[in-house]
Every structure is written in C-alpha cells, then in structure tokens.
Design brief:
single chain; binds coenzyme A; 36% strand; 4-stranded mixed β-sheet; 27% helix; 12 strands; 3-stranded antiparallel β-sheet; alpha+beta; globular; 168 residues
Length: 168
C-alpha cells in the first residue's frame, strides 16, 4: 500500500518530507540524504518516498518499495517542445490534454523511480499502452495513474493500491 500526502500551502520540500515522516511514520528528526542525482532517501530505514510539485501543489508518496512519483498541473497547454520528443506510437495515443500529461508524468515517474536525471533519460524512455519502455525494451515496472486537484499523477513502483490525504 502506498500513502500519498499533499498540500496546496507553500512548503519547503525537505520540511514537508520530515513533517510527514514524523507525524505519520513515527520517525522523529529523520535524516534525509540525497543520491548523486538528488533523489532524497532515508538512511537506516525501510521506508521509501518520493516528492513532486506542480503549480503550488506539493505531494509526497510513501511506501515500502522503491517509488518514482510525478505530477503535472492539467491547467497548462501541452508543450510542443515536449510533445515533439514523444515517439510516433506515443503521439498516436495522445489525443487530449490529459493523455499528454499522463504520458509525461509516466515517463518522469520512471526516471524518478530510477533516481536518474531527466536530461539523461528522457529520449530513451517511452510510455505506450500503459507500459514503460527503456531503449525499446519493456522496463518491467508498474505505473499507477490518477487525477485530482486538476493535476495528473503517475506512480512508478511495485504498488497496486494507494490512499491519498490532503494535509493542509
Ligand atoms: C528530479 C527530476 C528527475 C524531475 O524534476 P521535476 O519533474 O521538475 O520535479 P518534481 O517536482 O516532480 O520532483 C522534484 C523532487 O523530486 C526529488 N528528486 C530530486 N532529484 C531526484 C531524482 N534524480 N530522482 C528522483 N527524485 C528526485 C526531490 O524531492 C525534488 O524536490 P526538490 O527539487 O524540491 O528538492 C529532474 O529535476 C532531474 O533530472 N534532476 C536531476 C538533477 C539535475 O539534472 N539537475 C540539473 C537540472 S538542469
């Protein structure tokens, strides 16, 4: 089970992570470390998390398996520069604004799952028929998607269920 917490109040990412881990996971004063590409993690803990923000909304996904979590506001227009980087078969699936953001966040959630850099992997990743492909091969990861607060969300990881809580 994955638990998602979000706020629309202005918060600093690290403070939000620490507050949630303390309030809901009973971890007082958590020490947050970062990988070489900036993915925050907890040392000496089985708890995994990943944070995302878009247009004033900050959301944190917490679970027991590796996570990549991404959201994008649905209020923007699909960006031609981003759209042009999708593959032909992806473009064939992108018929609405929602489709655009579902594809975008799915790709980003996978890159964040790996803890990689967007710039390094964006052109090598594809989201087609609900599956992620890396350099043309099925990446073997699971993507969960939902929409709330006018944002599209994608979760990459070994999860089938999630709960969501506004903590404003
Ligand atoms: C993280 C990244 C993959 C996606 O960023 P994004 O979609 O713009 O932002 P999101 O709001 O979804 O996620 C940002 C959060 O993810 C987390 N994060 C940071 N780097 C991460 C990484 N490599 N993998 C997973 N999560 C990461 C942090 O909590 C970050 O919050 P913060 O920036 O407030 O500290 C992108 O910024 C990236 O490629 N970072 C790598 C470092 C890098 O290339 N820096 C130079 C940028 S020009």
């Amino acid at each position: 089970m994955l638990e998602i917490f979000y706020t629309k109040k202005p918060v600093l990412s690290e403070a939000f992570i620490k507050n949630i881990l303390t309030a809901y996971y009973n971890i007082p004063n958590p020490t947050i470390c970062k990988t070489i590409h900036g993915k925050p993690y907890l040392i000496k803990s089985k708890i995994c998390f990943n944070l995302t923000h878009s247009k004033g909304l900050t959301a944190l996904a917490v679970g027991k398996h590796q996570i990549g979590f991404d959201c994008e506001s649905l209020s923007g227009k699909p960006r031609p520069a981003v759209l042009s980087k999708f593959t032909e078969r992806e473009k064939g699936e992108i018929l609405t604004v929602q489709d655009f953001y579902r594809h975008w966040t799915a790709r980003e959630s996978y890159i964040k799952y790996l803890g990689e850099q967007l710039a390094a992997l964006w052109r090598k990743v594809e989201f087609y028929r609900g599956r992620i492909y890396l350099r043309g091969e099925d990446a073997g990861v699971h993507i969960l998607q939902f929409e709330t607060e006018n944002c599209a969300f994608s979760i990459c990881g070994d999860y089938t269920k999630f709960s969501i809580k506004c903590v404003d």
